[in-house]
Amino acid sequence: MFMREFFDAGVAPARGLILARSRAVARWAKVVWLICLLASLLPSAYAQTTTRVFGNGNNQFTMDFVTIGNPNNVADTTGTPNPVGSVAYTYNLGKYEVSREQIDKANTAGGLGITMFDMSSFGGNGVNKPATGVTWHEAAKFVNWLNTSTGGTAAYKFVSGTLQPWAPTDAGYNANNLFRNSQAKYVIASRDEWYKGAYGSPNGTWYNYPTGSDSRPSAVAGGTAANTAVYSQSISQGPADINNAGGLSSYGTMGQGGNVWEWNETAHDGVYNTVGESLEMRGGSWDIGSDYLPASYRNYYVDPAIDGNNSYGFRVAIVSDFNSTINNGEVTITGYTGTGGNVEIPATIGGFPVRVIGYRAFDDNKQITGVVVPEGITHISAEAFQRCNNLASINLPTTLVEIGSYAFLDCKIKNLEIP
């Protein structure tokens, strides 16, 4: 493996940077592996949650997301369709459904013009009630604003207000998903992304209900008790507040069973490739029975442009915390927008393999403490992690062939194992 100089030779030895392939490193690797395994078995109360801020001033609001890990998980073969729920990457799913207040503030800040159903006769229009009456197209415009208002790329393409597939000449075009831009960060969850967050678990077990259980949840009007869901209520009761909508899934999401139906990005045939196709909704709502809650049910003859009644809502997913470019079908990571800690770099973004960590991609990031670089990455460019003063550990892949100059300058790394 050809390694370029990646630290300042005049100062790095004083900092104690040591290249070693030692038994001690191997023992510590086993300890870290055991800790990660035990963490994967903890209940959803310990799920990793991240909070993102949007808007500003009086129009500022936050959204909570939970991490859906276990990438490349085995699909569920007991749900509908069969198989379903395998996702090749780690992502984040909204802990709650999108609220009325979040839509109102985005409307004001971005001039989105999204309309919601008047819920005066169905429990009221409280700010923490789920945003209902929103069509799929309106939900897409909301997530586009989440992207563009934070300096990112729109997920969905609208031309003069009309949804269009991305063209091969558009940056971020993905032939495997014509309507989702591969460079977007915030999206409407696909069938597999939504299903995994609802019925999956960190250890790979699948459940029949989105409360981390194979037993039917108890019907409630609201609350957060384990294995409860908001269903079988009178229509006048209306949905619960988004943060009071029943027990959590194994991954830590709330309200994926009952409360309100939720839009998915996927068409009934599994591929959204034609404008006007009927898209899936899942989860059931507050005023219907338990038959609509389990993994075996989906509602799929729904027009994304015009259907938006009082029981239709949605939640948002984050599919990448990384800025990137795509050249010849391969991804170069150019920046990081996540919250730090131990960062797992994805093996793929938008269905394309990640090959390069670009020049200064993580430069001067004080929040990251560890990095896991997956197999498949071949180059870490010059100054990629320089001045990441709290970066103390990094796991490198066997596919790595080059580390650029000063890649880890002024980091806390003391021991680095070169594959």
Can you tell me about this structure?
The chain is an alpha/beta fold. 13% of the residues lie in helices and 22% in strands. It contains 5 helices and 24 strands. The strands form 7 sheets. Strands 15, 16, 18, 19, 21 and 23 form a 6-stranded mixed beta sheet that branches. The N and C termini lie close together (9 Å).
Write a brief caption for the model.
With 419 residues, the chain is α/β, with parallel strands linked by helices. It is built from five helices and 24 strands.
Layout of strands and helices, then pairs:
Elements: H1 12-15, E1 18-19, H2 23-40, E2 49-54, E3 61-68, E4 91-94, H3 100-110, H4 136-148, E5 157-159, E6 162-164, E7 186-188, H5 191-199, E8 218-219, E9 228-229, E10 261-267, E11 279-282, E12 299-302, E13 312-313, E14 316-318, E15 322-327, E16 330-336, E17 341-344, E18 348-349, E19 352-357, E20 368-372, E21 379-380, E22 393-395, E23 402-403, E24 415-416
Parallel strand pairs: 1-24, 8-9, 10-13, 16-19, 17-20, 19-21, 20-22, 21-23
Antiparallel strand pairs: 2-3, 3-4, 4-14, 5-6, 7-14, 10-11, 11-12, 15-16, 18-19
